[in-house]
TrEMBL record:
It comes from Seohaeicola nanhaiensis. It comes from the Bacteria. It is a multi-pass membrane protein. CDD domains: TM_PBP2. This is ABC transporter permease. Belongs to the binding-protein-dependent transport system permease family. Pfam families: BPD_transp_1. Residues 78-262 form the ABC transmembrane type-1 domain. The lineage of its organism: Bacteria, Pseudomonadati, Pseudomonadota, Alphaproteobacteria, Rhodobacterales. The chain crosses the membrane at residues 87-106, 112-137, 144-164, 208-229, 241-261.
Length: 271
């Protein structure tokens, strides 16, 4: 005996479509909320509801940015900052990941070196900038070292934590299968730690832009951080906002690039 399916009422159809409709509204709002903010800022500045000396209209900031793009001035500063971040990031990430893997796999080494890293990690990286400038000078070497220190600890702790959180059953399977230490590392420990490693790389990328901006404030003659500081000294507020937006976009694009690599090399992780 068969029964025909009951047709849904209009009210039931409306309730079923409601989640998809809300999702479209949220997506639309996410696209246009930044534009709405810029519009409110523009009108408030033009109508003198906010002080234009401190908050120039976005149109004036865009005009300043365009003139700097045409003159290629902006690209010189971007190139200097990217060069410093690239070198410093590599100097910190490579040993951070390496030592994180070693300490995560070896309890004796972790007991020996862990307290040293735990004592050094809370030291504010900007607080040691005068010492680094004293040792390495005001050139790029001091920027490399400062960024490397900040990147090292974030990648180190995330990597070590990822290895230590590897499910014990994986290690037991490797041991019962007669896998060597190298095989256990390659087949089990390292893949299990990859999501945490990429988390550390993304955190370190954001931190490196904070560090380089502060370092370029005081000890540089080029770079986006220096450009922001020089604009502040001359009260060129529009140029200062251009620098702030540029370094924000640079950091955002860097994190997007790391996330793309994560999707490529860690397809099993949640994104």
């Amino acid at each position: 005996m068969t029964t025909s399916a009951r047709a849904l009422t209009e009210d039931e159809l409306r309730r079923l479509k409601a989640p998809a409709r809300r999702e479209k509204i949220y997506r639309f709002a996410s696209y246009f909320s930044p534009l709405l903010l810029l519009l409110v800022w523009e009108l408030s500045s033009r109508l003198n509801l906010i002080d234009q000396r401190f908050f120039p209209p976005p149109s004036a900031i865009a005009e300043t940015a365009w003139s700097m793009i045409v003159s290629l001035e902006l690209f010189d500063h971007i190139g200097a900052t990217l060069r410093r971040i690239g070198v410093g990031y590599a100097m910190g990430a490579i040993p951070g990941i390496t030592l994180g893997l070693i300490l995560g796999l070896s309890q004796p080494v972790r007991r020996l070196l862990g307290p040293i890293f735990a004592a050094l990690y809370p030291v504010p990286k900007i607080a040691i900038l005068p010492l680094i400038l004293l040792i390495f000078g005001v050139g790029d070497a001091s920027k490399f070292v400062l960024i490397a220190i900040g990147v090292f600890f974030l990648t180190f702790y995330n990597t070590m934590g990822g290895v230590m959180q590897t499910p014990q059953i994986y290690m037991d399977v490797a041991k019962n299968a007669g896998a060597s230490r190298l095989q256990t590392f390659r087949r089990f420990a390292f893949p299990a730690a990859l999501p945490s490693i990429f988390t550390g790389l993304k955190l370190a990328a954001g931190s490196s832009y904070i560090i380089i901006a502060a370092a370029e404030f005081l000890g540089a003659r080029s770079g986006v951080g220096f450009f922001i500081w020089a604009s502040w000294q001359t009260f060129a507020v529009s140029r200062m906002f251009v620098g702030i937006v540029v370094i924000s976009v640079m950091g955002y694009l860097t994190i997007l690039a790391i996330e793309a690599l994560e999707r490529r090399f860690v397809p099993w992780a949640k994104h």
